[in-house]
Design brief:
single chain; 7-stranded mixed beta sheet; 12 helices; 10 strands; 10% strand
Length: 357
């Protein structure tokens, strides 16, 4: 069984079946009624932190649609609960659901800094920007408790290695001291995600993320310290936030962003079912319209797996979104450029000290 009404505080409204598991877990009405009569919770809505012990931490990114070659994720699962998040499907590899489990069961990689250090010290490693994180947010609430991201940034600084950051959490400003040192060597760039200027929209799409004003302030503070910021105005969801593209671009430009990027939403794997269930509960008056608009961007389907097309979309609606993005760049970002990070400083630091000869 699943709740029929919209449940605040989380993105997903249910746990979808894990495609890799033989058995399906569900709550029956008689069990829910028993819990009600006994005054007990049928299941806990609290976030769990589960330690895991990977052997490696840096992942090579094969997708041509993502602007990175390597990424690393200190955490799997994300408490932010963004309903559209493509990373939800990855939670199924760990035996969990892409739905509520993704938001409530956070896998913590405490050994990430040591694994990172071993990777970039390896004699065969050639410096290339590693992105924190390509999958889940490295500054999600768990970071406040475990500080794994900060320790990884210290490793990048120690070995003069370039690092990119993707986040929608103002917690990144906690590490401004390290970011300033990295930036002094042109070794860091920050991508801040801003998907709407409406708090009402933000609270439904991304229930446990930083407010819009905090994100814009984050862009401003980083930019005032000359740390390059790219704004991720993504995903664009027709019927929900795509009409905000121009004012979004202006807002992030006014706060100092040097560039911005967009994608058109696609609901791959279990996310299609999770998003469909969510929108029928959270925005029932426009659910069908939004779903049809998304399908129009992907050849009649809400999912799209075609390299080169899946993140851009196709058709008239997708083209309108990209036309607006082009206009925004001409209007608000002329003569601005996100810099390339340096890769030539790392080699002498592999052994922890500069070579003398």
């Amino acid at each position: 069984m699943e709740p029929k009404e919209y449940q605040k505080g989380r993105g997903a409204q249910k746990n979808t079946p894990n495609q890799f598991l033989q058995h399906v877990y569900e709550m029956r009405e008689d069990f829910l009624e028993f819990c009600r009569l006994e005054g007990e919770e049928a299941e806990s809505n609290k976030t769990q932190y589960i330690p895991i012990f990977p052997k490696t931490i840096v992942n090579k990114v094969d997708s041509p649609d993502v602007g990175m070659l390597y990424s690393m994720n200190p955490y799997q699962g994300c408490e932010h609960g963004c309903i559209y998040c493509y990373a939800r499907n990855a939670h199924e590899y760990w035996g969990y659901s892409a739905g509520l489990d993704f938001e409530r069961k956070i896998l913590v990689k405490k050994a990430a800094p040591e694994l990172l250090e071993a990777k970039i010290k390896h004699k065969n490693w050639k410096a290339c920007t590693i992105v924190l994180s390509g999958n889940t947010d490295c500054y999600q609430p768990a970071e406040q408790k475990f500080e794994i991201t900060r320790k990884c940034l210290e490793v990048f600084l120690k070995y003069r290695h370039p690092v990119g950051i993707i986040t929608k959490n103002a917690l990144v400003l906690r590490d401004l001291d390290i970011l300033k040192e990295l930036n002094a060597h042109q070794l860091v760039g920050v991508n801040v995600s801003v998907t709407s200027l409406s708090e009402k929209t933000r609270r439904k799409l991304e229930p446990r993320t930083a407010s819009i004003q905090k994100r814009l302030k984050t862009i401003k503070v980083l930019s005032e310290n000359n740390i390059p910021v790219n704004a991720m105005l993504a995903p664009m969801i027709p019927g929900i936030n795509s009409h905000e593209l121009l004012p979004l671009a202006k807002a992030v430009a006014d706060h100092g962003a040097r560039s911005f990027a967009i994608t058109v939403v696609r609901l791959n794997g279990a996310i299609g079912q999770i998003f469909t269930d969510w929108i029928k509960k959270a925005l029932p008056d426009r659910a069908e319209k939004v779903l049809h608009l998304i399908q129009d961007c992907h050849g009649g389907s809400i999912n799209d797996s075609r390299f080169g097309i899946r993140s851009r979309g196709e058709g008239k609606i997708a083209q309108q979104i990209h036309d607006m993005a082009h206009l925004a760049r001409q209007k608000y970002f002329k003569n601005r450029q996100f810099p390339r990070l340096r890769t030539d400083l790392h080699e002498p630091y592999k052994n922890g000290q500069m070579k003398l000869f």
